[in-house]
């Protein structure tokens, strides 16, 4: 599948200029002296046990919320335990990852290359994308996807819209079922459990 630019699409050099300008702005914000209290440096990624969030104790749930807030504001990310997602589901999605990168042919990967997607969804080869100064290539190899109602165990409400204004549906690129049997369904099963966990946490940690 080839990517065809519509008349409304800006030229590639204009898109690059806009991206560079946005990056310049972000770098200036990061370099500017902070007016808030400097957060202490960290030497390990926080590990947060979510099991108290399922407690009937408001105090226990509030403690989990405080730990999440602290990790987000001082570190930016964290590990979780006690989430209730079966180990079998975690193992299954890791197996899918191995199958994706080890079993798909180069032609199959090329057919779902992120260059075919305006939302950068699909297969991302190593050394294809850049971070920071747009000259240093990232060494990671990835498969990117975003929300779609088929992955949502609730079915969705039909109101999801991408940041670029396009409605949900069809942005993701998936391997063909015959090329990687069970991949989409396996991702959907795991994603569904994570989404239900997120909705549960929002309710448990937000409301008394």
Distance separating the two termini: 50 Å
Total strand count, please?
4
Order of H and E elements = HEHEHHEEH
- Assign an overall shape: globular
Give a description of the structure.
The protein is built from five helices and four strands. With 208 residues, it is mainly α. Helix 2 links the parallel strand 1 and strand 2 (79-81).
Task: Throw out a few tags for this protein.
single chain, 208 residues, mainly alpha, 2 domains, two-stranded parallel ribbon, two-stranded antiparallel sheet, 5 helices, globular, disordered N terminus
Short structural description:
With about 210 residues, the protein is mostly helical. It has helices at about 10-30, 60-75, 85-105, 105-110, 185-205, and strands spanning about 45-50, 80, 120-125, 140-145.
């Amino acid at each position: 599948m080839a990517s065809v630019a519509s008349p409304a699409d800006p030229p590639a050099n204009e898109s690059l200029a806009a991206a560079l300008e946005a990056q310049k702005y972000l770098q200036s914000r990061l370099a500017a002296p902070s007016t808030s209290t400097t957060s202490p440096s960290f030497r390990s990624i926080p590990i947060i046990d979510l099991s108290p969030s399922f407690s009937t104790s408001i105090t226990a749930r509030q403690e989990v919320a405080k730990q999440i807030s602290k990790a987000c504001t001082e570190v930016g990310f964290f590990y979780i335990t006690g989430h209730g997602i079966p180990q079998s589901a975690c193992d299954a999605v890791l197996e899918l990852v191995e199958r994706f990168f080890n079993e798909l042919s180069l032609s199959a990967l090329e057919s779902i290359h992120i260059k075919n997607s305006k939302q950068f969804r699909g297969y991302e080869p190593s050394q294809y994308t850049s971070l920071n100064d747009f000259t240093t290539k990232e060494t990671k190899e990835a498969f990117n996807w975003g929300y779609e109602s088929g992955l949502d165990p609730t079915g969705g409400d039909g109101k999801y819209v991408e940041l670029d204004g396009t409605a949900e549906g069809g942005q993701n690129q998936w391997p063909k079922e015959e090329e990687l049997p069970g991949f989409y369904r396996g991702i959907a099963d795991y994603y569904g459990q994570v989404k239900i966990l997120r909705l549960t946490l929002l309710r448990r940690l937000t409301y008394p």
